[in-house]
TrEMBL record:
Residues 37-181 form the Oxidoreductase molybdopterin-binding domain. Residues 1-44 are annotated as: Disordered. Pfam families: Oxidored_molyb. InterPro entries: OxRdtase_Mopterin-bd_dom, OxRdtase_Mopterin-bd_sf. Transmembrane segments: none annotated. PANTHER family: OXIDOREDUCTASE MOLYBDOPTERIN-BINDING DOMAIN-CONTAINING PROTEIN, PROTEIN-METHIONINE-SULFOXIDE REDUCTASE. This is Molybdopterin-dependent oxidoreductase.
Length: 201
């Protein structure tokens, strides 16, 4: 885990950014790439996204079906647990409110599953009410595989590992089920403003 968390130190927090820069973070103009394994290459022709409820009911979309849904443009600051923050990132995709609108569930949590086997857990309420998107475009270009393309979650109010790359579906659950990084020691929730980087923070 330490090899993916450089632990940048000694950078001051510009006063003008104090309201946008969480504690312990530094701003960057670049877009660093950190991955735990090889980058999946998923053709849009075979890509699918599936929401599976706690009862096993499935709701699925092909790439064409997903891109035919109402699309939203959004701009967000993003914050990585490795301490970089990038301001005003521009995305295009589908709100999770749209994808979950017709899903009948009493679940309180979701586990995001990615091509390549990665998982991460989130409270379902953190994916609703305009808080999360399934995005496929970054800065007017198709999302590259290195940054999670063809599609990734975008949950900008949490540390960026919660915005699962190469996402292929959500499994809705009654109980909280820690994912890949959470079982490796990262915080179960990951609020950058509370510096929830690791278990115990």
């Amino acid at each position: 885990m330490s090899s993916l968390s450089p632990g940048f130190h000694g950078r001051g927090r510009p006063a003008s950014l104090s309201e946008r820069l969480p504690p312990g973070q530094y701003p960057t103009e670049s877009f660093p790439v950190l991955s735990a394994g090889p980058t999946p290459r998923v053709p849009t022709e075979t890509w699918t996204f599936t929401v599976t409820t706690e009862t096993g009911e499935e709701h699925g979309w092909t790439w064409d079906e997903m891109t035919a849904l109402p699309q939203e443009e959004s701009v967000h600051d993003i914050h990585c647990v490795t301490r970089w923050s990038k301001f005003d990132t521009r995305w295009r995709g589908v709100s999770l409110d749209t994808l979950l609108a017709d899903v009948d569930t009493a679940a309180e949590y979701a586990v995001a599953h990615s091509y390549g086997g990665y998982t991460t857990n989130l409270p379902l309420e953190d994916l609703l009410d305009g808080k999360a998107w399934l995005v496929h475009t970054y800065d007017d270009y198709p999302l590259s595989p290195e940054h999670g393309g063809p599609a990734r979650l975008l949950v900008p109010h949490l540390y960026f590992w919660k915005s699962a790359k190469w996402v292929r579906g959500l499994r809705l659950t009654q109980d909280d089920e820690p994912g890949f990084w959470e079982t490796a020691g990262y915080h179960n929730y990951g609020d950058p403003w509370r510096e929830q980087r690791h278990w115990g923070d």
